[in-house]
Amino acid sequence: MKTNGRIRELLQLTCADDYQYSFRVVQPLLQYLGIPPEQCWPQFRIENPFGGGLLRLDFLVHVGDVPMLTIESEPRAAQFDEGYRQAKNYSTNFKPRQPGSAMQERTVPFLLVSAGTRAEMRRAVIRGLNIEYEPILDSGRPAFLEWEELETEARRLAGTIGEQHPILKAEAAQQFFEDLYAAIHSAPALRRKDDRKIVLFNHVIDYARAGAPSKVRATCLSAGLTPRAAQRVLRAIAQYQQKVEANEFSGPAVARGYRTFLLQPGGRGAHEYFTGESQNRPYLVGGRVRYRNVARYFTPGEVIQQMVRLADPRCNERVIDMTCGSGGFLAEAASYVAEGEGPAQATQFLTKQLVGVDDDPFCVSCARELLTFLYPDRGDQLHVYLHNCLYQRAPATSEIREDRRAERLLRPGRYDLVIGNPPGSDEYSGTNPEEVAQQWERRFGHTRGGLMDHHCFIRRAVELARPDGGRICLLVPEGLLARDNRDLPRVRYELLRECEVRAIISLPRVFRNNNARMAILYLVRNTNWNAARKVLLARVLPQWTDETGESRPTELFAELEAVVDRYRAEVEPSNDRLAPGEGLAGFADVEVAVDDSNEP
To answer: Does position 267 have pLDDT exceeding 70, yes or no?
Structure first.
């Protein structure tokens, strides 16, 4: 391990541009660390995970086909944070697309950022559902692993897993999920019933965790699997039974592996995407099962992380995701509280304050399983319910078997924070559309232009938030903020009558198979707001132009993190000094001025 000796000398060299910095500083630094030139690949291409085109690493250090270290260099020290965000994005979303390369697709365990006079090597750690990189230090000074140490780390990746290797633990758990799913996927009785496969998959893991193979078999048979197929499932579990029963497959690393498994593409015997793919979702009509074609769009973990940072939940606050999907917002909120306030407070928050609701049985099953991986000893204390959030009391002839325990938790004005990614279709896409339409006409007088998801979920979010400062942080289609048809101007005006706008962050494409532009909308419910309050308006563009005039794809997650950092460091502190004042809520009803541009 090297500390700042020769490294300090290299960092003092003055360089005019990226090319000179790479030649005079970065390459000599790699030589000093003993990294063989043939194991260092410059301008390595990887897939842009949520946009078009490819991204390029400045350098990739690998041991054989194992990616070990990504390197990002910038000529000025002021660019260090920017370089780190880019390197983290490259390392956590590493999908090799370099011609002639057989590199493994996996999380890169180390990164190195060198910017002007500052350089750090960092090691991957798992926090919540996301990966961060902690600086490697020796007696408080930045330290850098040498080639022999990187080789040793690469050999460890093929060894036993444990808490000291969280990245490997996540990937080993994901392999278990793929092996188990392959056994379930082969069952003819569940062909083209992917939702039911995953729900069965979740039940099987629960029983395996409890050490109950007889219940695994019985559950498989009741789901329609043949005895031979059920035996394949039992054999898949037996390969990992010791790790499952020892709770080795639990905690943040495994929770991350589980959600990654849900969002991964098909192939290699695994399932198709459950995000962005149309699914035949069952519902009930007169006691008979019918199927409706739906598409799900689960929010990328990095977007969830930044939305939770923006909303800043606390352990004593009531928080709800009223359309919780696979549970990403719930898990990230609990992890955020754990990191900021401690594990005891996070457990209290999880079991007393945090609520998830969804009208999709598949989503409810996955959300409960995700939280159980995160907190395996609290699986029976979770508040995640099958229910349509748009009403408090379920109709007698509901399309789903709604959990009435949720109804007391869906009273207006109950929550300090409403967070999530609600549906955003041009037509209402949830259950019981006739019931919802009748309620919306009665409660809001709305029928003009037909019922959209926009009309329903944003109004319900405001209704659930506390009237004296409840926060609302939602990922919404940009059209909600700009379109002038379907009664949307009225919806926006009503929002401004009841809520302060804190931030609007426009994003490029964030979902596979969907080109919709999305935006993060952050509001605070308060009818007496100060018109002098600063609002963060930001747009993350899909492309940017470098100093040579070449257009490059934007690293979405790095840019989004920078925007949220700015809000937390600059915008909100300046607003804390403002006293409440009269705002739009003091105005009489007027015609709404409409801006039909694409600007948020």
So the answer is: no
What is the tens place of the pLDDT at every residue in 202-254? 999 999 888 888 999 999 999 888 898 899 889 888 877 766 666 666 778 78
Two tokens at 144?
């850098």
Q: Which residues of 302-341 are buried (b: 16+ CB within 10 A; e: fewer)?
A: bbbbbbbbbbebebebbbbbbbbbbbbbbbbbbbbbbeeb
Q: Which residue has the tokens 């330290």?
A: 143
Which tokens is 121 given? Answer: 């090597």
**Span 285-302, pLDDT tens digits:** 777 767 677 777 888 888
Helix (H, G, I), strand (E, B) or coil at 410: coil
Amino acid at 270: A
d(CA 60, CA 294): 40
Predicted confidence (pLDDT) per residue in 85-119, tens digit: 889 988 888 889 999 888 888 889 999 999 999 99
Rounded to whole angstroms, the Cα distance separating 593 from 94 reads 46
Q: At 50, is the pLDDT very low, low, confident or very high (cuts 50, 70, 90)?
A: low
Evaluate whether 304 touches 561 at the Cβ level (below 8 Å). Answer: no
For strands 518-525 and 499-507, give the pairing.
Answer: antiparallel
Side-by-side strand order, sheet with 2-3: 2-3, 141-144, 137-138
What's the order of all strands across the beta sheet hosting 499-507?
384-386, 354-358, 319-321, 417-420, 471-477, 518-525, 499-507, 536-539
SS3 165: coil
Q: Say if residues 388 and 430 touch (Cβ distance below 8 Å).
A: yes
Looking at this protein, which amino acid is placed at residue 280? N
**C-alpha–C-alpha distance, residues 116 and 197, integer Å:** 52
Distance CA 63, CA 152 (A): 10
Report residue 2 as tokens. Answer: 């090297």
- Among the listed residues 280, 288, 254, the one whose alpha carbon sits nearest the alpha carbon of residue 170: 254
The residue among 449, 431, 423, 597 whose CA lies nearest residue 518 is 423
Order of all β-strands in the sheet with 110-115 = 40-47, 54-63, 66-74, 110-115, 118-127, 130-135
| pLDDT at residue 600, as a whole number | 31
- Of 289, 379, 290, 292, nearest to 331 by C-alpha is 379
14 phi/psi in degrees, rounded to 5: -90, 130
Query: Residue 23 and residue 29: Cα distance in Å, rounded?
Result: 10
DSSP-H helix ranges across 445-514 = 453-464, 479-482, 488-498
- Bridging pattern class, strands 118-127 and 130-135: antiparallel
Residues 382 and 333: beta-carbon distance below 8 Å: no
Highest mean pLDDT pick, 52-61, 362-371, 434-443: 362-371
Stated as kind and residue range, the H or E segment containing 179 is helix 166-185
The Cα 508–Cα 501 span in angstroms is 21
pLDDT for res 274: 58
61 token code pair = 């250090």
CB neighbour list of residue 115: distance below 8 Å, 6 or more residues apart: 73, 74, 75, 76, 77, 78, 79, 80, 83
Helix (H) or strand (E) holding 418: strand 417-420
Please state the pTM of the whole predicted model. Answer: 0.82
The C-alpha atoms of residue 328 and residue 499 are separated, in whole angstroms, by 26
Distant-in-sequence, close-in-space partners of 568: CB < 8 Å, separation ≥ 6: 309, 310, 312
Nearest to 295 by CA among 130, 453, 439: 453
Alpha-carbon distance of 90 to 567, in angstroms, equals 24
